[in-house]
């Protein structure tokens, strides 16, 4: 700007007087305005945008909301892909925790936690989707002809009469891949949905993506090779709930779903009598990505009874299923009937093993060499959760002796940022001090539905 002012106020140093023509003055004025406009369109005045993007990419995500208010340029930069690609290159990405809760009014609400600042943010509500057009027309028709009893029976097959209308995503599956959250299927007005919704944290909004090939509820999800897999679940058939053996995979880059071979449920095929085969229905009770394959524990059920029958393993290289190792399938801890949860930490498979006591539980780790589950020393502090606050714990250290077949030394989640370790403080030398509270939130009677991590 100094140079421009010098040009505009320049006085001739030569002795001969000269005049500036009107056309030349207009030309200079246009040049001046053009330069001024160019300065104003830059992200940061007097800096090339290449450098400004480098600066914006280093801003902590917790400040992005306010930073978007600075200017349209900043908003465009912070909601564009270039800035976040640069964050990955610079190593400035941050891992946030996203939790889905169900409130008393049967409303599903997402919250995000920045574990460094311990600040919570509420996400936009998921869209209030409706059932498929055919189902809506059918219900309207029955109501018109006075057959409300039939419509009420369909609406209330899962319990309370209007439950499925109040929770359009009842029984939905949750997954996180490629920096986005995905909500798949579930029930809406007693109809299993095919729809898939994606939350993009960069633009802080939900959008609908390609649907699954079939409507599913209570299906299991897993991520392998940056692709999202769904298996099993149930759908609504003429005879009631029908368990599914089919599976499919979603590629977030192409936005396309592809079917993969269905789960054989081989153990369900060798039941001793045809009566049991007809009575007990096979169902997937969990799924995890472990050592380059998908491991799916399975059960046979006849509500409300579940019988564990091991599980099966999907190999993406051969595009086929094989039986799960016996020790893994038979020893996989169950959180409750029909639910087997797990998590991968530093390449190891961990599962929660609830105790008969109300105030304790144990963590087990799978040893693939021995095909067995080992118990980690130290109780999970469930007794500390019996208050009005919902606490989130971070496993900051796993210590055990070599006698138990585990490597000694600390083990921390590869999906948790290094900064979280500072929050844990100095670890106690005792084996029982494995857990540290990293965040508190007043949750009231809210129920935790899902917990995911996004690194962007």
From TrEMBL:
One Pfam family per UniProt: F-box
UniProt cross-references to Gene3D superfamilies, sorted A to Z: Kelch-type beta propeller (2.120.10.80)
SMART domains in the record: Kelch
Keyword list, A-Z: Kelch repeat, Repeat
Domain annotation F-box: ranges: 44-79
SUPFAM superfamilies xrefs: F-box domain, Kelch motif
PANTHER family hit by this protein: KELCH REPEAT SUPERFAMILY PROTEIN (PTHR46344:SF27), OS02G0202900 PROTEIN (PTHR46344)
Protein name per UniProt: F-box domain-containing protein
């Amino acid at each position: 700007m100094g140079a421009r002012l010098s040009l505009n106020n320049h006085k001739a140093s030569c002795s001969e007087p000269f005049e500036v023509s009107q056309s030349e003055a207009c030309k200079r004025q246009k040049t001046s305005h053009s330069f001024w406009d160019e300065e104003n369109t830059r992200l940061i005045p007097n800096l090339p945008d290449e450098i400004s993007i480098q600066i914006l990419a280093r801003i902590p995500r917790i400040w992005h909301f306010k930073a978007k208010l600075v200017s349209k340029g900043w908003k465009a930069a912070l909601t564009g892909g270039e800035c976040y690609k640069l964050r990955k290159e610079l190593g400035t990405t941050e891992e946030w925790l996203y939790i889905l809760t169900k409130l008393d009014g049967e409303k599903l609400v997402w919250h995000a936690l920045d574990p460094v600042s311990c600040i919570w943010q509420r996400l936009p509500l998921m869209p209030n989707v409706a059932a498929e057009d055919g189902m809506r027309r059918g219900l309207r028709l029955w109501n018109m002809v006075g057959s409300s009893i039939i419509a009420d029976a369909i609406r209330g097959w899962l319990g309370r009469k209007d439950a499925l209308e109040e929770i359009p995503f009842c029984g939905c599956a949750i997954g996180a891949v490629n920096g986005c959250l995905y909500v798949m299927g579930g029930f809406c007005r007693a109809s299993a949905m095919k729809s898939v919704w994606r939350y993009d944290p960069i633009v802080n909004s939900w959008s609908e993506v390609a649907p699954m090939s079939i409507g599913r509820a209570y299906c299991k999800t897993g991520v392998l090779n940056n692709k999202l897999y769904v298996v099993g679940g149930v759908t609504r058939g003429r005879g009631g709930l029908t368990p599914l053996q089919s599976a499919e995979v979603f590629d977030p880059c192409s936005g396309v779903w592809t079917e993969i071979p269905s789960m054989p449920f081989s153990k369900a095929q060798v039941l001793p009598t045809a009566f049991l085969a007809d009575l007990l229905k096979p169902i997937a009770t969990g799924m995890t990505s472990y050592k380059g394959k998908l491991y799916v524990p399975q059960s046979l059920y006849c509500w409300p009874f579940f019988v564990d029958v091991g599980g099966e393993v999907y190999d993406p290289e051969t595009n086929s299923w094989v039986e799960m190792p016996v020790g893994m399938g038979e020893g996989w801890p169950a959180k409750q009937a029909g639910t087997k949860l797990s998590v991968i930490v530093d390449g190891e498979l961990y599962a929660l093993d609830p105790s008969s006591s109300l105030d304790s539980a144990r963590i087990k780790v799978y040893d693939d060499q021995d095909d067995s589950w080992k118990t980690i020393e130290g109780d999970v502090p469930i007794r500390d959760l019996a208050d009005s606050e919902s606490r989130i714990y971070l496993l900051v250290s796993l210590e055990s002796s070599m006698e138990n077949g585990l490597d000694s030394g600390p083990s921390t989640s590869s999906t948790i940022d290094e900064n979280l370790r500072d929050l844990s403080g100095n670890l106690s030398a005792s084996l029982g001090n494995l857990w540290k509270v990293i965040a508190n939130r007043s949750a009231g009677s809210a129920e935790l539905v899902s917990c995911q991590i996004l690194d962007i």
